[in-house]
């Protein structure tokens, strides 16, 4: 079944509920350069994106600049893919997606139209949507690698950890949700062997949390601390820090 405007409208309305930036941004006349990343302009804008973070944090190093740029490139399409499957049981090509770029940040998007396919099950939708997603991000990674080098295995592992984090958000919004089963379907469909894992925290209430497999290197920008679930920490310390974050959230 081909769906056009109704499917697009539902998708964009749902997306804003997951992340406030997942909408068409309101552009203002503040003399700041504003551009759209799409299949026609991606190479030039990816170069601008990478140069921004290189100039912003010159001491952070090339691995940080590459990982930061990569995270900016894939996060919105990944959200759209997951929302499409688990909210609407549908898939669609990500090629028409236009992502808003301004001053080192990719946030906000436009979808002129989509041809969406509705599926009988979320598992079936995952299989098709994962194929669309992989085609989209592999192209972006190839273009990023024209600017800076980022190993494909590391790039897809980073994406996998973000995928699991978004599935956690969905599980909190739409219980009951068999997150372990659905995560396994996504990772298998995307052919990603390495990803983080879910653990149960019990500090003040039972709560699933993500143990990341890969590091975003955020701690390299200066005085920033490692994330609570940073894989560059002993397992015991990670659990302690995540438990403390849960306690703080419970009482705030």
Account of the protein in words:
This protein is of the alpha+beta class and 252 residues long. It folds into 2 domains: 193 residues, no CATH class; 57 residues, no CATH class. The chain contains 7 helices and 8 strands. A 3-stranded antiparallel sheet has the order 1-6-3. The protein has a 3-stranded antiparallel sheet with strand order 2-4-5, with helices on one face. Helix 1 packs across helix 3 and helix 2 crosses helix 3. The longest helix is centred in the N-terminal third of the chain and has 27 residues. It is globular and about 45 Å long. The termini are far apart. The model has no long low-confidence stretch (mean pLDDT 92).
Structural key phrases:
single chain, 252 residues, alpha+beta, three-stranded antiparallel sheet, 7 helices
Task: Report the sheet with the most strands, covering strand number, pairing sense and barrel closure.
Answer: 3 strands, antiparallel
Question: Helicity, in percent?
Answer: 40-55%
DSSP helical segment count: 7
User: How many domain modules?
Assistant: 2
What is the overall silhouette? globular
Oligomer state equals single chain
Name the beta content range: 5-15%
| Beginning-to-end CA distance, first to last residue | 46 Å
Q: What is the strand and helix layout of this fold?
A:
Blueprint lengths: L1 E2 L1 H14 L16 E3 L4 H15 L5 H27 L1 E2 L6 E5 L2 E6 L5 E3 L3 H23 L7 H22 L5 H12 L6 E5 L5 E5 L23 H16 L2
Helix pairs in contact: 1-3, 2-3, 3-4, 3-5, 4-6, 5-6
